[in-house]
């Protein structure tokens, strides 16, 4: 149905997609997707006839996938996905089983990213088996080794394109995970950045089949290194892409155990420097060739020695520091949980980055 939508305040919306081609903002609600015309704020209901199936279906994923609208929801604790024939068409062309893409309960942690469809969502209603996967698209489905993460909370994922070298395109994940350090003074969480290669098809049939062969992770540091004082709990991420991938900036929002909030800024160039040059934590032997984490157009042919390092020693020894290094870019006593960065032209005709911080619920 189309027309003006009488908005129901009881919708549990928490997912958005802005389609610049049509000027529409898609908002996931309960049993429906709303499309808001950003020019005149006209609101219509789309996909409702498909998504209303007699059980509570909270929409958790809306992505533009290969010029189609890809929507997933909890579907009464039986996650389901629908691919529509185009971004503006409500006819379904494919159905997908949604476990691993949509959570079973809308409050569970999950993220999604389109290119092919990458996602992190639990495989059961108790929130277990949470890991980052490639689930839908033209490439092989790939997932993580079970020992790589410890009780992760995924924050964001971003595809950083290398226009001149697409075979080295990377997907970056930002998350926090449980700290293995048992000491009482250690923070319970450690913030991380990880990466995989977009061309990764998993290992050979005899070893690491359908597992990422390029997964590496590193600690993301925000604080005062000289004082060993850190904001350890990553809350939100905003990625500001640049034409030159090296200049892409990551604005990261952290909180601390002493109830303060900080913003640190990282460069993809700096993150890559750690992944390309650090040693592997706990690994004391010669680094094999090709280096673990290298993007291979045929990942199934990678040597066993290279893949074994990724399997058993995926963490980098060096930490990823912000471009300010000695102190956060911004500190506040407010409990911020969301960050967006906008570029504006001021009266002096210079372009400035403006930080928008929110105290809304996670």
UniProtKB/TrEMBL annotation:
List, alphabetically, the InterPro entries matched: Semap_dom, Semap_dom_sf, Semaphorin, WD40/YVTN_repeat-like_dom_sf
**What keywords appear on the UniProt entry?**
Glycoprotein
Q: Name one GO biological process term.
A: integrin-mediated signaling pathway
GO CC terms: external side of plasma membrane
Q: Which residues form the Sema domain?
A: 1-362
| Pfam families (UniProt xref) | Sema
PROSITE patterns tied to this protein? SEMA
Question: What is an example of a GO molecular function annotated in this UniProt entry?
Answer: integrin binding
Q: What is the name of this protein?
A: Sema domain-containing protein
Q: Which organism is it from?
A: Mola mola (Ocean sunfish)
């Amino acid at each position: 149905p189309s027309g003006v939508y009488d908005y129901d305040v009881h919708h549990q919306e928490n997912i958005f997609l802005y389609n610049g081609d049509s000027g529409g903002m898609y908002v996931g609600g309960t049993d429906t997707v709303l499309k808001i015309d950003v020019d005149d704020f006209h609101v219509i209901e789309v996909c409702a006839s498909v998504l209303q199936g007699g059980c509570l279906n909270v929409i958790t994923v809306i992505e533009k996938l290969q010029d189609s609208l890809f929507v997933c929801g909890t579907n009464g604790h039986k996650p389901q996905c629908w691919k529509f024939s185009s971004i503006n068409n409500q006819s379904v062309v494919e159905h997908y089983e949604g476990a691993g893409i949509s959570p079973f309960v809308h409050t569970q942690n999950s993220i999604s990213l389109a290119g092919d469809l990458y996602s992190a969502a639990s495989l059961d209603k108790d929130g277990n088996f949470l890991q980052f996967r490639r689930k839908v698209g033209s490439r092989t489905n790939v997932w993580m080794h079970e020992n790589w993460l410890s009780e992760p909370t995924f924050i964001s994922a971003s595809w950083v394109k290398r226009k001149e070298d697409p075979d080295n395109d990377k997907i970056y994940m930002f998350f926090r995970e449980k700290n293995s350090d048992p000491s009482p003074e250690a923070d319970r969480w450690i913030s991380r950045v990880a990466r995989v290669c977009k061309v990764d098809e998993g290992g050979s049939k005899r070893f690491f089949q359908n597992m990422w062969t390029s997964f590496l992770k590193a600690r993301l540091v925000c604080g005062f290194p000289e004082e060993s004082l850190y904001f350890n709990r990553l809350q939100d991420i905003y990625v500001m892409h640049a034409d030159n991938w090296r200049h892409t900036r990551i604005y990261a929002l952290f909180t601390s155990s002493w109830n303060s909030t900080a913003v640190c800024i990282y460069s993809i160039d700096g993150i890559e420097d750690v992944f390309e040059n650090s040693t592997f934590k706990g690994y004391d032997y010669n680094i094999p060739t090709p280096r673990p984490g290298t993007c291979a157009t045929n990942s199934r042919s990678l040597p066993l020695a290279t893949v074994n390092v990724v399997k058993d020693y995926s963490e980098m020894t060096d930490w990823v520091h912000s471009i300010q290094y000695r102190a956060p870019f911004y500190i506040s006593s407010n409990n911020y949980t969301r960050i967006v960065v906008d570029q504006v032209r001021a009266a002096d005709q210079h372009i400035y980055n403006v930080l928008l911080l929110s105290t809304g619920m996670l």
